[in-house]
Amino acid sequence: MATLFKSDQRDFQPHPRRIDNYRLFTDMSIAKKGVNPENLNFDLRQLNPGEYSAPYHSHRYAEELFMIVSGSATLRTTEGLEIVNSGDLMFFEKGDTGAHQLFNHTTEPCVYLDIRTFLGHDVVDYPDSNKILLAPSFEIFHKDSQAKYFDGEEDIRIKWKELELNRRNTDK
Questions:
Q1: How many angstroms separate the CA atoms of 75 and 105, rounded?
Q2: What is the pLDDT of residue 76?
Q3: Which CATH code for domain 9-171?
Q4: CA–CA separation, 131 vs 145, rounded Å?
Q5: CA quadruple 145, 146, 147, 148: dihedral positive or negative?
Q6: CB-based burial of residue 148 (10 Å sphere; 0-12 exposed, 13-18 middle, 19+ buried)?
Q7: Residue 26: is it exposed, middle or buried by C-beta count within 10 angstroms (0-12/13-18/19+)?
Q8: Residues 24-66: tens digit of each pLDDT
Q9: Where is 171: in which H helix or E strand?
Q10: Residue 123 and residue 135: Cα distance in Å, rounded?
């Protein structure tokens, strides 16, 4: 079924969990129509003056495409900063080289279409804060607390003895 999103029916709302400097608005008319894509997610975003789209980040398992619909912003990538304007397309590949962030350096809102693949999971890297986010659970971890595969697994025989003892006690 085709779903039409009319420009005169936009309903930009702030995300309730955003903090100062990251007050990105999303067009809620998409969600209100009950659209629930499986692999191709999209949002129409409004970035107001002086605001950042999100922390600087990259996706390990998702590609992303932005199109500036109206206004202008400054794009941050691994290559540095560049002004993007109405009609410009920006493709962000998977991995560190696809890292990105927008900042509205102007006095007018910047509206852009955000299209991204989603194959059921993603890991998002945040180089400025040394964090990772696991999607879709949205668990966030600091990378400097990374563990080795067998950390905490050395006493497996003790664990099995406890399990056998518990089983014997419940069988009585």
A1: 10
A2: 98
A3: 2.60.120.10
A4: 10
A5: negative
A6: exposed
A7: middle
A8: 998 888 788 888 888 888 999 999 999 999 999 999 999 999 9
A9: helix 156-171
A10: 6
In which residue are the tokens 């309730």 written? Answer: 16
DSSP 100: B
C-beta separation of 33 from 1 below 8 A: no
pTM of the model as a whole: 0.85
Residue 140: left (phi > 0), alpha (psi -120 to 50), or beta? beta
Strands (E), the chain: 12-14, 25-27, 40-47, 58-59, 64-70, 72-77, 80-85, 89-92, 101-103, 110-117, 122-126, 131-135, 139-142
d(CA 152, CA 40): 39
Amino acid, single-letter form, for residue 87: G
Structure token pair of residue 36: 């629930």
Residue carrying the six token digits 């962000």: 92
3-state helix/strand/coil string of 103-139: ECCCCCCEEEEEEEECCCCEEEEECCCCEEEEECCCE
